[in-house]
Write the structure tokens for this entry.
Amino acid sequence: MKIDIWSDVICPFCLLGKRRLDAALAGWEHAGDVEVVWHSFELDPNAPRDLGGTLVEKIANKYGVSVEQSRASQQDIARQFTEVGAIFDWERAKPGNTFDAHRVFHLAVERGLGNEVMSRFMTAYFAEGAAIGEVKTVQRLAVEAGLDADEVRSVLDGDAYGDAVRSDELAARQMGVSGVPFFVFDHRLAVSGAQPVEVFVAALNQAWDTQVSVPTPFTSAGSTGEDDAKVCGPDGCAIDDPRR
Amino acid sequence: MKIDIWSDVICPFCLLGKRRLDAALAGWEHAGDVEVVWHSFELDPNAPRDLGGTLVEKIANKYGVSVEQSRASQQDIARQFTEVGAIFDWERAKPGNTFDAHRVFHLAVERGLGNEVMSRFMTAYFAEGAAIGEVKTVQRLAVEAGLDADEVRSVLDGDAYGDAVRSDELAARQMGVSGVPFFVFDHRLAVSGAQPVEVFVAALNQAWDTQVSVPTPFTSAGSTGEDDAKVCGPDGCAIDDPRR
């Protein structure tokens, strides 16, 4: 079974949701048959490389609330991070444009290191105060996660994998996705947001139980019917029968 | 777009159907976005390695018709082969058990040579009188198609990839497939039998036009609703808003 996840590097609920999915998978009997695939989704494609100021200030400005209220909201998210074994050092967080990070992530997917690179990016942003919008940060983290330094530099110097990022985002728009994380189980069942572990377990079970999908028979004016379908079966090949 | 094909090596309508699909793809604008994947389906899993006798005799016996009538049916199929640029030398054909051929085909898939090996097997059976049920024939053809001789021998000496063959056949049964070829477009649309080229074109178009499938939102008692879904979007992270 395939699970597609749309997320952004700097989206706290994306990390929380992914960790809760992981927790659901950890205790699930068919976990060995699951393939998890990340997809790119930029919360703000127009963001500058460095938003400047602190996260608390930016949230206070965006919502028109006090710095104290903004701080409380970040503390609440940090508490939820702790519950899934992660760190959200919101006082040091340096949000910024994530397009380059997503481009390098797609290089990583081709090198079989998609999970490693995405995890490294997220940990660095949330726990280590890494300026994820800066080219040199993306370069350093990608290499730490196992990518070849020259190859990463070549991607960052050009525009490689930009199409892959846009393609992921187009697919999300076509599904009507406006916020992340967004999880799709086997192309059929969607879970939006950092839902509780038990919701992911229930979704996994439902997706698994409805896994066998029978395709719709194609019918058209030119299609031969059942009676003279040219097929071979256990008893021979249909129109092969000379008695007809 | 993915096209899954269930077929057997010795099934004449499988070769005809695949060639007609290829003809449909050759003139189709989105052909470059199509991935074709073969799947195993044995017409007769209990067949001996060598059925003995001629194909014409076997068909005459199976259907209780004269050798002349049987010959006419083979000539008709051979004529259809000619129309798709293939050869059916039915006088030399040596049908037999295809389990080993399918096992080696699955090795080929892992080595990126699935199409090459399946095509080689079919051409050898239909046009060259190759005894496809014999281990030494399968060994020779697989190596001719590009597989490593030692690796093929190791598969044929053991039972590797038997599970992969059975898994393909189980998937076919679960879809209610009793005869081949069976084509599934993007997991959703099915075409059964060696249909005319124009039917494949129409099926390709229909599958392409309905390609964007929106997954069903998962709902359960424990799922949080739209109002408090923990997502981040262009305007920030939902419950991040301290005014709520």
Notes: The first helix of chain B runs from residue 12 to 26.
